[in-house]
Every structure is written in structure tokens, then in C-alpha cells.
Design goal:
seven-stranded mixed beta sheet, 504 residues, mainly beta
């Protein structure tokens, strides 16, 4: 069969549509006669809905799209595959008029995007359509992401080891940037003024509310549903959401017997809001200290943010949790029992100086510096502990007790833990000259082995939010600065696999 060229007029003046079609004779692709008939801007400029005509849906296996990279950029092209099961389940296929509506998200705003649609059929035949989608300019509240101060642009000289990052912050909805610094998606439709408790599931985002015990499931089209948490004790989410053993690890404020429990409870919940398991760190520490002969009343103080949990992750290797207490230390807990395995932190603080029961659980630091005021725990590919080491001492210790050390610099820090020997060693850190100090919030994650993305939330005396990609040798792959108040634009910058997605 000879290739045939077809064009269709856009629904909206700002959208441009051109399509070409080719298929092999006597194949399911030929019989289906896939063609693009219209397009429309979605809920944000980063999303467009394409309407396809299709004569035979029964043999369609999947439809994929790829957004061509802008010239001069290095991030992998955005691509998504929708299976026939997904199209049937979500109502994307409309049998009455034989139309298929496919959301294309990850567009460059204010740009004529080249999009390739590919339909795959059961007999392995394929059909492709080339479409130009002219996305509107983004003029939403998070315009700060569109104009970074580029200190180091991504280039062919240094690969950061990833292509897309999820940005969680204290002001805007969750956003996705590519490694070239382009804003590629944001959930502006959400009624939130913070997005730090956000979890990426692969086909949606889950965003916890700081005002109620509920969270939002946000599709990449921008629409969302609100899900209540099945507990009367919790009042709100805070800080972060992470992958748990069976569900999501969520950090909660709560009221117990009429008394606030501030930032000291972590629970595992399902994506539908059921509570699977809870760890009350106040109760855990009080019991541990009493068993060790200490009075916990001047350490565990209900109604006061004595713990300040800001990160909790599940460790499948030994069925445990790692939890960050900004005020005190990093803790490892047994998942099943909640027993404390070890503590790692500044040994000049109240917890170590005044309590033998906690001192007995402390790891001995054999190299480097301890975590102080740390954020965003994670594990590297080889199982080492990675965290952002803020260096800001405690602010809510009891009067007359030691708040510990405060440094004048911050670093990402990586630790090897030897549990049998009871030791820890800082084995990598990034400490440029001049130093960068970010006292609060902030993050670091390994992207691929030896590569890291670092978010400084309060650089330059709290006037800059900064994104930087660096490797173990100190080579910087990119460096983007956003003039903003602390944590407002970047609290957490987390690499996510935002290309090659498969929706089932």
C-alpha cells in the first residue's frame, strides 16, 4: 500500500495538527485505519487530549506516544504506552462513535511539540501518526520554574544519570522538571499550598493534605480524587510520603487522649486510605528509656515538636524502617516489633549526653561527620545510607540541655553502617568551595551509581532554592537556581522514571 498523507483542522486556533499515515497491506493495522481527527488543550498547557478514529479496536494491543526533544536538550524524550486494558477500563475507547481519546502529557509549554503516535496490534503490525501539538505558554502560579538562573546547563559533557525529577515544595503543587531545567508537568488543579507529602506510583501521584487526614490521587491529566484516611486519631499529613512494605509510609500529626502528638507518628497506609500499621515514636522511645532505667519525661514531650520527623523509608533487606528525627538523630526500627536497632547522630546533644539508655544504642562514628538536622533518607544501590546533612542544630530541646553543633555548611552525606560492629562511617560527601549552607528542608538522591541530584532549599541565607546534579568526583552536570524563600520552590527533588511509562 502506498503511504497516504492526510491533514485535519484543529479544534482550537492555538493548536496545530498535521498527520501522515502508513500501514502494511492485509494487516490489522491496515484494517483499523487509525487516524487523528482532533486535539484539544488539557487542564494545563502540559497536557493535550488527542481524539483518534479507529475502525477496529478489538485487535489493538496498545497506543504509545513520544514527544520529540527540543533541539539543544539532552533529556530523554517523554514517552508513554497505553494498553488496551487501560483504554477499556478508563473509558478512553468510545465504541459508540469509534473514537479513542488519548491524553498526551509532558509537553513543552509555549512550544510546537512534535508527537509521534504508534499503535501496535495483536498481529505485531504497527501504525504511526505524526502530530504537531502547539501547547500554550504556562502562566500559572509556579512560573518560578520557567526562569531558573542557569549556572551550569546540562550538556553532552556530563550525564546526571537521570532525565526527570519530581519537585516537592512548600508553596505549589507537585511539579516535574526535566534535567535540562524545563517544566514538563504540574498539578495546578490541586487545592494545595504545599506538596511535600507526595508519592509517585507510576501512573499517578498521591499528595497528602496538611489540613486534614486525607490525600489526593492525581492523574497526569490533572484530574484528581480525594481519599480519607481511615483513622480518627490523625489530623494531617506532613513532610513526605514514601514506598512502604505493602503500601505508603505516611508521617502524621495526631491527637491522642486530647493531647497533640506532633511529627512523631509514622503509619503505613494503602492507596485507598486503610491503615495497615503504625509506629508511635513517642511510645517507642518512652518504653525503651524506661527499660534502660531512664525517665523519658524530659525527652518525650507530648504537645511539643520534640522529635520532628521529616523522613521515613522502608528497608526490605532486613524488614526495617529508617526514620529521620531532625531534632535528634537517625533511627533504625524493626518493622514488625518497632524495637530500636540503632541511633546515629550528634553525640553532643541532649539525647546522648543525658540518657544512658539511648547512648547504648548509638553507633560509633569512625570517619566523617555525624548527621545534624538531616532530611530525606534513602538507600543507594549498594544499600548505603544517603541523606542531606543540613548541619543546623536542635531548636526545641528542653531548657538547660544541649542543642548540639551548628555548622556553617551543608552536604549530601553517604554512610556505611556496620551493625555487628556498631559503627558508621561517612564515605562520601559533596562540599564545594565556597560552601553551600541550607539549614532546613533540602534533599539528595542517588540517580544512577555514583550520580546524585541535590536540592538546596535555603541557600544564600535563605534567598535561593537550588538544584544541582553532581557525581562522586565532584563534576557538576547541571546547576539551576530559583530566587525563592526557604523551601518554597524546592523542598525535595527526587528522580522519577517519567519516560517509558506503561499504563495498564
Amino acid at each position: 500500500m502506498k503511504p497516504a498523507l492526510r491533514t485535519a483542522l484543529p479544534l482550537l486556533p492555538c493548536l496545530l495538527l498535521a498527520a501522515c499515515h502508513h500501514a502494511d497491506d492485509d494487516t490489522q493495522a491496515e484494517e483499523a485505519r487509525l487516524r487523528v481527527v482532533s486535539q484539544a488543550t488539557g487542564l494545563t498547557p502540559f497536557v493535550a487530549n488527542l481524539t483518534l478514529a479507529l475502525d477496529d479496536f478489538d485487535h489493538l494491543a496498545s497506543v504509545s506516544y513520544t514527544i520529540a526533544a527540543k533541539p539543544g536538550t539532552y533529556s530523554k524524550p517523554m514517552s508513554v504506552t497505553y494498553t488496551r486494558e487501560w483504554m477499556t477500563r478508563t473509558g478512553a475507547w468510545r465504541p459508540a462513535d469509534r473514537r479513542l481519546v488519548i491524553p498526551v502529557f509532558g509537553l513543552y509549554a509555549g512550544y510546537a511539540n512534535g508527537v509521534t503516535l504508534s499503535a501496535a496490534f495483536d498481529d505485531k503490525s504497527k501504525d504511526e501518526e505524526q502530530v504537531t501539538v502547539a501547547a500554550p505558554v504556562y502562566a500559572g502560579p509556579a512560573a518560578v520554574y520557567t526562569t531558573p538562573d542557569v549556572r551550569t546547563a546540562r550538556s553532552a559533557a556530563a550525564n546526571p544519570g537521570f532525565d526527570y525529577m519530581l519537585i516537592k515544595n512548600n508553596t505549589y503543587a507537585p511539579a516535574v522538571l526535566d534535567s535540562d531545567g524545563n517544566l514538563r508537568w504540574i498539578a495546578d488543579t490541586l487545592p494545595v499550598n504545599t506538596s511535600t507529602p507526595t508519592w509517585f506510583s507510576g501512573d499517578a501521584l498521591y499528595v497528602g493534605s496538611l489540613n486534614s487526614p486525607s490525600f489526593h490521587r492525581v492523574n497526569f491529566t490533572g484530574d484528581y480524587t480525594t481519599i480519607p484516611v481511615a483513622s480518627t486519631r490523625y489530623t494531617n499529613f506532613h513532610h513526605d510520603l514514601a514506598t512502604g512494605k505493602q503500601g505508603l509510609l505516611a508521617e502524621f500529626d495526631a491527637v491522642v487522649d486530647g493531647t497533640p502528638r506532633l511529627e512523631s507518628i509514622v503509619a503505613e497506609i494503602t492507596p485507598t486510605g486503610e491503615v495497615l500499621k503504625e509506629w508511635d515514636l513517642g511510645a517507642i522511645f518512652a518504653a525503651t528509656m524506661r527499660a534502660g532505667g531512664d525517665d523519658p519525661s524530659n525527652f518525650v514531650r507530648d504537645g511539643i515538636d520534640w522529635f520532628h520527623m521529616n523522613s521515613a523509608i522502608y528497608v526490605p533487606a532486613d524488614d526495617s524502617l529508617l526514620v529521620s528525627s531532625r531534632e535528634n538523630f537517625v533511627i533504625k526500627l524493626d518493622y514488625k516489633t518497632g524495637h530500636i536497632k540503632w541511633l546515629l547522630g550528634d553525640t553532643t546533644k541532649h539525647w546522648y549526653v543525658d540518657y544512658p539508655s539511648l547512648r547504648a544504642l548509638a553507633l560509633h562514628l569512625t570517619a566523617g561527620k555525624p548527621p545534624i538536622g538531616q532530611h530525606t533518607l534513602s538507600l543507594t544501590a549498594n544499600g548505603e545510607l544517603l541523606l542531606f546533612n543540613n548541619g543546623y542544630g536542635s531548636v526545641l530541646q528542653p531548657p538547660g540541655t544541649s542543642p548540639g553543633i551548628t555548622r556553617n555548611f551543608s552536604t549530601p552525606s553517604r554512610y556505611v553502617i556496620d551493625e555487628k560492629a556498631g559503627t558508621a562511617a561517612e564515605v562520601w560527601t559533596y562540599a564545594p568551595e565556597p560552601p553551600i549552607y541550607s539549614s532546613v528542608c533540602s534533599s539528595v538522591y542517588e540517580t544512577t551509581a555514583g550520580n546524585y541530584v541535590v536540592g538546596y532549599s535555603a541557600a544564600e541565607a535563605g534567598t535561593q532554592n537550588r538544584l544541582l546534579a553532581v557525581n562522586t568526583g565532584g563534576q557538576v552536570a547541571f546547576d539551576y537556581i530559583y530566587p525563592a524563600s526557604p523551601c518554597s520552590a524546592v523542598f525535595i527533588a527526587q528522580p522519577i522514571p517519567f519516560t517509558g511509562l506503561i499504563f495498564k
